[in-house]
Amino acid sequence: MHSTQPNYLRVSCHFINLHANIEIIEYGQHRGHAIPGKDSQPTLISHIQAEIVPKETPITIATERGFRFLKDPLFFTSTVFRNLRKRVAALAMVMGFCLLVYSLSHRTLRQCLKRGSQTIQNQLGKPTATPTLPWVFQCFMSIHLLTLASFKQISNLSEQRCSILQFFGAPCPKYYLLC
Questions:
Q1: By 3-state DSSP, what share of the chain in percent is helix, strand and coil, each rounded to 5?
Q2: What is the pTM of this model?
Q3: Radius of gyration of the chain from Cα atoms?
Q4: Which residues touch 140 (CB under 8 Å, ≥6 apart)?
């Protein structure tokens, strides 16, 4: 086992403490849902129990990555929410919810592309199955709703943008007046 610290095995954002009690639990388990026969041999299953210790720096960086825009002076967070704990808590709750929706949208898009073995074009015009959500949002920035005499029409809705919309479920095409 390789380690960056003498007492720990490295695992993503956590360490496994190699000096704590590490137990290997083995037991036999029969495959299938039926009652095993007299002569069937169980499969040996092993579980390892160990102490997991979080690495604070990578976890903090990963958490802060979604909220770094709050430190931007152009966002004016400090002037609006300064010195009021309830407002800071409310902002954190709203931003946490927004980050959750953003992450789920990103995950949904990539899963739909993978499930259908499909791709969309990236910024360079090359097909990709792992687009970034900021780029997808940027694709939709030039779309506008035009209303003339109570008649609504969407401008700049290209074939590529319509194909991207299909991966986000029924409400998105409806939003762009496609249903």
A1: 40, 20, 35
A2: 0.52
A3: 25
A4: 161
